[in-house]
């Protein structure tokens, strides 16, 4: 990663960089908990039990504590007297829904605006509109009768009146490549200079944030602006990337901004519920697939882990619907269709023999998807450790030049990926004209070769592009690769059927040769599904998204089968999808939701023993000042408190500091050094002691060390825990934090931590 | 419920019947745990730590213990030496997938077979085929050109050569009503005599079973057969019920049977994962909606609570796809379409002004849905406490007579609900002919009146039917009610637009009056969505199911909006959907997944104090025989073990008994009364003691009493706990079981426990 990226984090503290495979029993408590380091963050509004802790960037929220704070707040809200008490819960809820509706509308508008911008920038690489610079090709040529030639749209050579064919091609290719470099370069400069977190897809980070990672800079208004603008430039530059993932990031930034504007940021869990809804809406807009968006939230973002999953799903559902409606209302393509790729023309039924090519496609998709993940991870690690890490803009400029040059040579690479996919998804229709000879039955082998070449080139380009310092999604390139392969397979099958119409295997085809039997366009959809299954390892959401794209009820089953087989094949080569791999590489504190099976170990395997913990011993007659000094010196998020060998509980440092701060001032004024205690019993016996027992966090779980490891992992996964204390017979025996569990679950991955940001 | 229903349970022990609103702090431990009573159930194959407990009917499984047993088993499987060790995990997995595929195929076949049977029985009420008794009307009339009159199908009066019009109507109505009574009556007799658990929809029970309730009789082969047969008869009788819910039950029975046949029953959690997949497949077949089926599993059955949600979803997905494929392959309707209701003909776009009638429809749907739930619950409670409870068959016969008589008078009630819905969902097409005058524009008011009358009659009929001693689903009647109301609203809107084509509000309509602007068929879909939303309170799955039915991408948004609004309206009148209400009435140990917010209470609110628990005091020099006697005398599932005031843990009675049984025989043979201990420490000091410390269940969680109540409830919900021990400083302070939490969450419902089976 670039030095620019490191800049903002330098001021805030770092996620720990762990070298390779540290023995889990062996690392020090400092290392394991250094990401919990808390500085002097400002404290939020006080509640009855003292202020809640503000979380520092790069820490993990304490889910149970946040829930308890929310409980407290709701109770206060409901217990108010009079009209205000009766109305404030309603008002609160109304404000929430207002923000949700606004978020939905905002995302719809942002999506539409991006579409328009990308189309215009992309067309600019080919030419311009005669009567206005800011028209894209479609808008420029609108209003023509079918068949009429559009004379208003001029290629650059026409515009500059270059006559010679050589001059024309040189000029056209020069503008094409130069603008690609300019777009990609400015996108990279924007990202590197103003918002380093706007690079990449954003989905790994959002997954981590939804699970409790604190990463507010990732959601800043600045990131929002740069990501949106940079995304439009990056997509228009013709690099092998898509807008889907980044659009989810943009949606989350927007929700975060709106929540801040309307004062809804008071609870970290509430914030995450809003983000989950916004992420669904982002997918909804990206694909024009509102149900797919909600499912994406459920499946990939695992929003079911919230304590009220129904409510979260529900809000995601409403936000998705509103976003899709706004997009449809704005209608950026003038087609009054929601979806990006209109899929039409393929026959209503499919035949059993087609399952054979589809199975092959699915297996190829799974293999290639798995390969793409591995190559992409290797490329990312190579980039990090090479000189390229220091020159991110140069890398983008250079690679966009390569991409543009290569793309200009292959006709299917030259066009925007979305246009290519839209054409590949469509059946050949004699009335509609041929797309670059794709429908020419005599050019079968040429087409198949071209399609496979395109797919392979795209695999290589995508491998490198996904991870450069520009906003980049992996969905669209994956779809394009799959669609090319699928179309190639479809053409082959069609050719085979046409040349052997009487073979027994094709007996199900209609005998009339003029009625098409095989629909190569649908093979593209199958190929796209297979490739997506291999890369993302999603299942349901993919099927729903592709179903919403195609709208073909009768074709749901083949899509399902292809996703199933592709996932099976890919899983055999490695269980993790591309987002999980990136999360592990960047070492975010995110727990995979997969079932963890221990091999008979107990929690003792990962428990940090009490000897290596920093513990407050309550019997030691600590003065308030000493306690404060202790907090300053250690700087952890919290500490177990032990009195005479008995575990009293866990206290959160920030909360305790905020409580004792005024007492300390009193002490300083009066000159008395008061002694404090966390034991109710001691406080009752000795009224001179300052009773801090109310500060003990009653939401921290205590377990015994001989609990099965699997159960502990399961609890961290299901309850979103931050830490668990271990005790035996009332005595503290150790502690496990989320980091320990994340490490346990990810250490086997090849590149775990390879992209974690180093401490400088 | 009938006395017949009570019979089989009488031998097995009862779910406790709680009278009204017992104070949660006040009930005795016996009452709270009586459903955990374990008899001398046979024990399963022993594992390294002794045999696992077999669960008695009507108990709740110990989720954590089952998971630990599964862990143990997997480990054993993997640790085997040689080829067998290498192959057995693969074989195990292959067997699972084999059962899943088989289940999918089986459900598809069952669904198709039911469709055929129902169609034939239903048509039999009108007439018979000339050339074969076992043909239904469609099969009988197949092969005709369009427009040709089918002479092969004869009404009963034609068959019996009755000429006079009076004679014809009397004969037709007599056969119609008599066969309705015969079908419904035989269905009720089958259910009451052979499989009382085959009554009703089955979804509340499946929800409870998936969450850990043990109810194997509900899944027996006998229930499978009777439910399938009884369902076909009940649907054909024309009672106001659907096949969707019962089909889910049938699917689960089938999966259970197949799992038993292929020896897969060894783990209760694995069994439940299979059932979850089967349930999805059931919905998939019932609606021809494979994605909707999976979502139904996620949303309504809450299958996300499994420890490996991805795997569960995945299996559900595969099973659904296979079931839908089998159904499509068998093609019972000869249409080569998956779906029950083909929705066609409505225009591609909708106009903004249509949102007004849709909002009204959605609100009406929500209101009526909520009303239907309340009326249905009241009817069920009334039935239970009245004389009808003793005469279930008579009730069914009587009510089917009333239904048939009323239905015969109203044309839209006379046809099968599914046919009515299919017609209502379809746009008027001049080429297709008019369905009972529905498309006659001059009969607008008559049609609206008839539709509303049909809807209201159906509400009343459904209210009573859903809960009688026959298999009955609530989905189809709800859809029919909504479709009638929607069509009525659509006709009104259409009429208004036709009479005022120039009004500003209809400005969006095409000026040409021959082009239809309002599509009343689609209003039916909206109405059905609204009604379903009000009754079931599902969101996503409904939208997906209706989307898969209609296939109209452009119309997803109106469906979403209608479900949203309907749920809002209905939620304002009571949060629970019809299945939750029934679960509460029958008092199954099922925890609603909704977020529970305490009002500042801690766990102490529901903890049964240590004084009222039956505890094993380890220091008391207990002999093995005494321990055995203690188990026999108390008969609970398990007991906390305390040694010198220190909580050692929790032991499961069955497991301990199985371990000490051979030791007892030794004692009896040798005449020595050995003393046992659960403390490792004591056993180490005194080698004469029998060391039982390994039997202490290491998966039981221990909490402190001052933990917030919300956290405890949340843990029970997320971790599927059975019980939690409470301790403070190593001393046992109390215990909370699932029953306590269920009671806490359901006691506010009006009819909680009203239908629980009483102890006799």
TrEMBL record, chains A, B:
The chain crosses the membrane at residues 94-114, 174-197, 218-239, 245-262, 274-298, 355-373, 393-415, 448-467, 474-493, 513-535, 542-565. It is a multi-pass membrane protein. It is found in: Membrane. One of its GO terms (molecular function) is voltage-gated chloride channel activity. CDD domains: ClC_3_like. It holds the Pfam family Voltage_CLC. The keyword Ion transport applies. It comes from the Eukaryota. One of its GO terms (cellular component) is Golgi apparatus. Its main location: membrane. InterPro entries: CBS_dom_sf (IPR046342), Cl-channel_core (IPR014743), ClC (IPR001807). Keywords: Chloride, Ion transport, Membrane, Transmembrane, Transmembrane helix, Transport. This is Chloride channel protein. It comes from Cerrena zonata. The lineage of its organism: Eukaryota, Fungi, Dikarya, Basidiomycota, Agaricomycotina.
